[in-house]
Fold:
Amino acid sequence: MPEPTVALIPAEGPIDLVVTGVDVLVRPGDLRRGVDLVVHAGRIAGLTEAPSPARERATDLIDGARLLAMPGLVNAHTHSAENPMRGLGDGLPLEPWLATLMHEGGLYDAEDHYWCSLATAAELLLSGGTAVIDHLVMTPISAASFDGAMRAYRDSGIRGGVSPLLSDHDATVGLAADLGVDVSGVVAMMPEQAPAMPTADYLQLTEDAIGRWHGAEGGRLHLLAGASGVQWASDELLGGMAQLAERTGTTMQLHCVETRLQAASCHHGWGKTAVERLAELGVLNPRTSLAHCVWIEDGDIGLIADSGAVVAHNPAANQRLRSGRAPIAALLSAGARIGIGTDGAASGDDQNSWIAMRLAALIHRDPDEPWVGANEAIAMATELGAHALGVPGLGALDPGAPADFALVDRRAPGLAGARELEAALVWSESGPGVRHTVVAGDVVVRDGQLTRVDLDEIQHHITEQCERRARTGPQSPVLEATIARLQEVRQRLAARQGRTHVAP
Ligand SMILES: [Zn+2]
Structure:
């Protein structure tokens, strides 16, 4: 076992927090038993032999006798606005599901965004999640919508990032036309809800939001650059966002080939893979995270790994929407940085990173394929995914790292019989064992209760939004016609690709 280390503990004066006599999983494979975990100024100040003199000066003490401190889980990709749309469209593939979501979701004002983002933060924090990237769908797109979501992340105490989901082009239309179907305006643009703006306005709106929010609360809040997806964005938008991220020191997120139709749309539109297009536009770099990457091609794997870009893997949504499985084991063995996301609450559908982590280990175990191990799943859900926020040291509990961790009860059902700790964390804990959650040194969940926001009030507002958005009466003929057209495109693409059977 490595020696306990001491660093960054102030020589005198009060110390913010000491978790006494606690087992600390610094990262998978590195467990320190029964140390004092000293937290000061938002950072891990030391992992010291217990009892440490720091206890005498601690402003706050938590008895760690039966607890495990582990890095907080990082939710690398979600969409908060789906919180009042849970369970939507069971069995639909992504394109008709997305049309249903946009059609039935309707409009969101700043207050709606506030409560949706707060609900995301609350569910994550209560289960030991400490960071989130909210790929924000705004209907309509506005400065107030950015601010509604960011106020929620500020108030909740989570390490929160918002990336705008912006579209100014739709390559699906060109492919569909080539296949004899008109889908203009139905997949990505949602013209009634999100009137198209000039691309320069999208860039300016995002730059202004970065100026208001990025780095606020001592660096806890992030405002990322972003676009909706490779096939839904112009060169100007993608390249402009990548430059904006570099110029302002933030990161960037977008969707990348979640479905076969998206991958084929990129080939049709640009004559290359989506990943090759991103590389040419200067988007494939360590600041960028790509959600999904289910239909990347063999040559893309090395491009992604060599670039340092992060893949945000969303196993629940990929299975729920029948999109397929990303080549995660191959990406890992190529050295790619992969995070894990829940995806939105209408496709994930919970906001529980434990379940996403378990699925990431579970669905990549075909008998003849490389597989994903428990330690790899934890690394993805913590240190690897944290790269999408670009915070040095985030995702492991080394001295000097941000003090973002969960304290899990080792005698709760998930861990009481744990023969192998990391494997048990993946296979048998799912959040109920989390007693306290600490973000940037603040105890934001104590004894299973949120300390900064009121869960009942949040759920009241989510229920109200759910009822307000609920469809009364039969399904809209417009939506039915849209779904029929999208299904027709999927069928015709399958026929062109020589696939004889496509499930509806
Ligand atoms: Zn998504």
